[in-house]
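User: Show me sequence and structure for the first protein, then do the same for the second.

Assistant: Starting with the first protein.
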Amino acid sequence: MLTFEKIAPFGANSYPMGRDNTLIYVIAGIILLHFIVGIGYLLYKLTKKK
């Protein structure tokens, strides 16, 4: 009987980076920080006394 379990080099259920989502969390944190800093800067610029 033909099975396909050994075709994938790292196994059928493994990923090159594993199941670690740390990189995704770091990128999401940088994007979120970017928006928070941007909104804070806009509020600062709009409420500054002339």
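Switching to the second protein now.
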Amino acid sequence: MPTWLLILIVGVVLLVLGVAVEAAKLLIWIGVAVLIVSLVLGLLGRGRSRT
């Protein structure tokens, strides 16, 4: 297998992994935001039910 083809394959694999890692970071931040919003709404719901 030619060297340029190996370099091309490695480059494509690294590009795909880089995009996947960035997408995973975005999904983690979205998950954290949803968790925080649900906790706040849960605490507000408890506060309203007590009064």
